[in-house]
């Protein structure tokens, strides 16, 4: 059977702009879920996640990684869940892990996740995000659910790149990915914009 | 105007939707329900000063907030989750 691979959220992508100020890539093929603790079950959920995933579910807008999985705090007792193992076996095992302690909604086809970096990342993002992404206000591991150019989005900061430049990831509804790309490519153009890991089918 | 969400932190007004004052909905089963609803809809207090109101953090954590706002200055005096 031919392997079914997920397609990009952007059906066609302009190739960026000359210069090396900003980079972007789409993190394709991720298992994405939203997870909400059931009433009175948060403690039980936390201990199961801690034991099986080696991760402490954040109690604030934050990004944490565990074993082959990552969590972003979206709201009280609500998280975004990501894994590179987007397989039926993973979805089934995660569902059975949280069992009656949380409700899970598969969003693998609902959201798109982009990773942005480069020395001028913050300058480009500041044109659309109304929150302060300066390093003093938004540390590695911090997250925020907000808007970017009128599009609802969640942004979190990962560890800096080896050259010291900041690295962010942004999730948003997949159906709005082209609108996001339109804003982002225009905003980053003056610094130069490079696609990394450009999917072969684009 | 900025509103401090207990979960997300201080955010711009554009992330929120205003729902109205905190006054409880009248009991539709009360014998004088018609008068109570008339008063709740048309005879609201309109205080010049602190006002308790509901805001929805639509473009954030999607939580409902109880906000105490000074209607003269838009100063936000206090915020909490509506369910807390
Ligand atoms: Zn909030």
TrEMBL record, chain A:
SUPFAM superfamilies cross-referenced by the UniProt entry: Folate-binding domain (SSF103025)
Record field: transmembrane: none
Polar residues bias: start-end ranges: 1-11
Source superkingdom: Bacteria
Region (Disordered): 1-21
Pfam families (UniProt xref): SoxG
InterPro entries: SoxG (IPR007375), TrmE/GcvT-like (IPR027266)
Protein name: Sarcosine oxidase subunit gamma
Automatic annotation (TrEMBL), chain B:
The enzyme's E.C. designation: 1.5.3.1
The keyword Translocase is assigned to this record: no
Top-level EC class as recorded in UniProt: oxidoreductase
MF (Gene Ontology): sarcosine oxidase activity
InterPro entries reported in the protein's UniProt record: SoxD, SoxD_sf
UniProt keyword annotations, A-Z: Oxidoreductase
Domain of life: Bacteria
Gene Ontology biological process terms in this record: tetrahydrofolate metabolic process
Name of the protein in question: Sarcosine oxidase subunit delta
Organism of this sequence: Bradyrhizobium ivorense
């Amino acid at each position: 059977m031919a392997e079914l691979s997920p397609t990009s959220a952007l059906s066609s992508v302009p190739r960026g702009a000359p210069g090396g100020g900003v980079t972007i890539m789409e993190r394709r093929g991720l298992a994405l879920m939203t997870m909400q603790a059931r009433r009175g079950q948060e403690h039980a959920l936390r201990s199961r996640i801690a034991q099986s995933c080696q991760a402490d579910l954040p109690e604030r807008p934050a990004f944490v990684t565990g074993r082959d999985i990552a969590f972003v705090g979206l709201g009280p007792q609500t998280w975004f869940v990501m894994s590179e193992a987007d397989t039926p076996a993973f979805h089934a095992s995660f569902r059975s892990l949280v069992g009656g302690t949380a409700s899970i909604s598969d969003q693998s086809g609902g959201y798109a996740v982009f990773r942005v970096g480069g020395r001028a990342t913050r300058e480009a993002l500041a044109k659309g995000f109304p929150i302060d992404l300066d390093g003093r206000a938004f540390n590695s591991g911090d997250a925020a659910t907000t808007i970017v150019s009128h599009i609802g989005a969640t942004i979190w900061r990962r560890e800096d790149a080896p050259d010291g430049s900041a690295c962010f990831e942004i999730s948003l509804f997949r159906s709005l990915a082209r609108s996001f790309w339109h804003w982002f490519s225009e905003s980053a153009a003056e610094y130069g914009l490079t696609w990394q890991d450009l999917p072969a089918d684009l | 105007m900025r509103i401090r969400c207990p979960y997300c932190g201080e955010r711009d007004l554009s992330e929120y939707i205003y729902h109205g004052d905190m006054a409880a909905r009248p009991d539709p089963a009360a014998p004088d329900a018609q008068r109570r609803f008339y008063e709740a809809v048309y005879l609201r207090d309109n205080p010049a000063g602190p006002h308790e109101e509901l805001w929805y953090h639509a473009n954030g954590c999607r939580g409902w907030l109880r906000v105490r706002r000074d209607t003269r200055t838009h100063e936000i005096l206090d915020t909490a989750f509506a369910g807390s």
